[in-house]
Here is the input.
Amino acid sequence: MGTRTGTGLRAAAGAAAACSVLALALSGCGGGDRAPDPPASGAALSPYESVDRAAQALRKAQSLTVTHLGKAKGRNVEIRISLDRHGACTGRTAVRGSGTYEFLAVGDRRWIKPDSGSLPSLGGGAGGRALPPGVAGHYLAVPPGDQKLWAPFAQLCDLDRLLAQYDSLSSGLGVLTRTGTDRIDGVQAVKYHSAAAVDSDIYVAAEGTPYPVKIETLTGDGAGTVWFGGFDRPVEVSAPPAELVMDPSKLPSTDSA
Here is the structure.
């Protein structure tokens, strides 16, 4: 039985895939036994200590921007999110074959903007009627307390939950070696290679706070690249124009009876 408020807007398949592949990418450096820390020379940190320090710095960030390019079940996935610890969040996910979603959150108000390719997923796919074409390009206002519609995006807009996936970076590093330096988006970074069950390259800022600025997962299901930036900068999010907002409760139900 369907409800008009729910409108069959089940956890969007494309957005869920994006969440899953980002989780794999963020935790992809783990999975192998960690070699013992070699003794530090004087005040210098070992590669393991440096990556541990980067993980700790990341968990303390008050805001940031995450960009990810990778694959989920053979489909290209692109994710970009800017968020803070005060409920501000703006992002975009694109999964080949499942369309694109934009999403916004300001405090307890949330909106989702699907494109035409994502309507079948939001409408329940083959299990329900597709949403009206006119929904594409408009923002669906998530009803207060509606966890079902927002579920695929909730972990992307929760900084603690998002970064908790990064905890495994501090374990399972396997053999970790410093392999040089590089400049990532204008930031000078030290590059570390993790040879474990999943091979990864980890880039840590060489100046200022030692944030990780790039993680490239080279093997495994989570293969792809994650960039981190915008640390502790304001995340500016405004409610979309009223004329572009639709009320999901007024859309036809797509749940099967």
